[in-house]
Amino acid sequence: MGLVKKIDPKSKREYSYCEEKGVILTNGAIGRYIPRKVKREAFKKNNGKCVICNEKADSLDHIIPFSKGGRETIENMQPMCKKCNSKKGNKKEGLYEI
């Protein structure tokens, strides 16, 4: 695994990033890192509204779930409200695709 040391510009904290896996490691914990540009552009899809219920989106969803190999790319992210996102879970890709 090729880890790269980076510094978060907002918090100024150092973290290790694995581009190959799209995960971050901070203090030994593994999590996902979605770059700000990806978040910003993904929220613009569907005018910032949930792709299921059309309410204001307050989270992003992986079209192809992370657990099934989906990446943190603009093309694979879609805006959703937390309620719809939690209902969708990691269902198959394309089920809620815009």
**Whole-number mean pLDDT:** 78
Q: How big is the Rg?
A: 14 Å
Q: How do the SSEs run, as a string of H and E? A: EEEEHEEH
Q: Strand order of the main beta sheet, please?
A: 1-2-3-4
**Largest beta-sheet characterization:** 4 strands, antiparallel
Q: What's the count of strands?
A: 6
**Low-confidence spans:** none
Cα-to-Cα separation, first versus last residue: 33 Å
Shape: globular
Secondary-structure content class = alpha+beta
Notes on the structure:
The chain has 98 residues and is α+β, with helices and mostly antiparallel strands. The protein contains 2 helices and 6 strands. The chain has helices spanning 36-44, 82-88; strands at residues 3-7, 14-18, 23-26, 29-32, 59-62, 77-80. A hairpin with a 4-residue loop joins strand 2 (14-18) and strand 3. The protein is globular and about 40 Å long. The chain starts with a strand and ends in a 10-residue tail after the last helix. The relative contact order is 0.16.
Record keyword descriptors for this entry.
98 residues, 4-stranded antiparallel β-sheet, single chain, two-stranded antiparallel ribbon, 2 helices, alpha+beta
Give a quick rundown of the structure.
It contains two helices and six strands; from the N terminus they run ββββαββα. It has 98 residues and is an alpha+beta fold.
